[in-house]
Amino acid sequence: MSINFLSASTNHGFLDDLSKLTQIAFWSVTSLVAALSYKNAKRTIFQPLRTEIFKKQIEDLSTLLGIFTGKGEGELRADFDMEHLWMANVAKMYDAYLQYAFDTERPEEIREYRHEKCPSSILIMRPDAPVRLVVSDKKEADLGETSAPKPEEWDYEHVEIPVPRGYSDHMKELQNILDSPLLPSEIAEKLETYIRVARGNIRQVRDIINKSAPEMPQRYPKLEDMQRAKFHWIRHRLIRASEKLEPSAKDIVQAARSYFDSDNLLPRRRKPKIWLAIKEASVRSLKRLRIALTPLARGTDRY
């Protein structure tokens, strides 16, 4: 009787182990099928969206590379029409001195800062600058008078900066790219730095002109001197004071190229997390299977 009881107990234990093994196998297979189904559904549903995002990124980065690749400092400045911006602002100060010192004006149609050339302007004032209305108290000059006022009477502050259309258009183009929500953050940071440098050079224009303005009476004491005037001395100061654009442009090009694989232009991708989850689930299932089979193997050896 004891032998029959032992045989029945052994069969019962075997059935329990087999049941556990079946459950483990079932849930392992179910988990694997669910994971693969999710991955396939995710790929099917989101693939068109990922494709469109990738196409937009390609478009934005191709535009950036077209703007910056292979360009030196002079070409980058030309994109902003900086020569025109410098000359327009220097001419504005020259015309102010011409009017103040000699009651003379140049025709509006030849002014470098006229509305057709510079449709917009930027106002830059010091936070603590007082509101000042400058009124000349000198008497009406004779037609033959060409003497300039005393240096202390000429007090000019360059507040309004005429901006040429080329600068505005290029800045708008860069800003539109920067505003794209699909632009990679690393590249967006580089582009923000470039734009910040360009805007900082606008402030330098104001500062250099304000520092140079007091020299006007010494350089141009007579109207004839103004008629022969050249802007080169201020232009050289503007060039030296301007922060270089080229280093920031190179950073943008390098970041844009490194974002894509150089051979097939596919973005860098990390190993999908779903495969890591499947791997971990498989390892856990194998451990459970070994634990379940251990007593079964021992029972087989004994009986």
Widest sheet, order of strands: 1-2
Tally of individual domains: 2
Structural class: mainly alpha
Largest sheet: 2 strands, antiparallel
Query: Which range does the strand content fall in?
Result: under 5%
State the helical fraction.
Answer: 55-70%
Q: Helix and strand succession?
A: HHHEEHHHHHHH
Q: What is the approximate shape?
A: rod-shaped
Number of helices: 10
Mean residue pLDDT: 77
Calculate the terminal CA-CA distance, rounded to whole Å.
17 Å
Radius of gyration: 38 Å
Keywords:
303 residues, 2 domains, mainly alpha, two-stranded antiparallel sheet, rod-shaped, 10 helices
Overview of the molecule:
With 303 residues, this protein is mainly α. It folds into 2 domains: 2-58 and 270-302; 69-127 and 147-259, no CATH class. 66% of the residues lie in helices and 3% in strands. The chain has helices at 2-68, 73-79, 82-102, 165-178, 185-212, 216-219, 223-227, 232-241, 246-259, 273-302, and strands spanning 120-123, 160-163. A two-stranded antiparallel ribbon has the order 1-2. α1 (2-68) packs antiparallel against α10 (273-302), α4 packs antiparallel against α5 (185-212) and α5 runs antiparallel to α8 (232-241). The longest helix has 67 residues, at 2-68.
How do you describe this structure in short?
The chain is 66% helix and 3% strand. It is mainly α and 303 residues long.
Question: What layout of secondary structure does this protein have?
Answer:
Layout: H1 2-68, H2 73-79, H3 82-102, E1 120-123, E2 160-163, H4 165-178, H5 185-212, H6 216-219, H7 223-227, H8 232-241, H9 246-259, H10 273-302
Antiparallel strand pairs: 1-2
Helix pairs in contact: 1-9, 1-10, 4-5, 5-8, 5-9
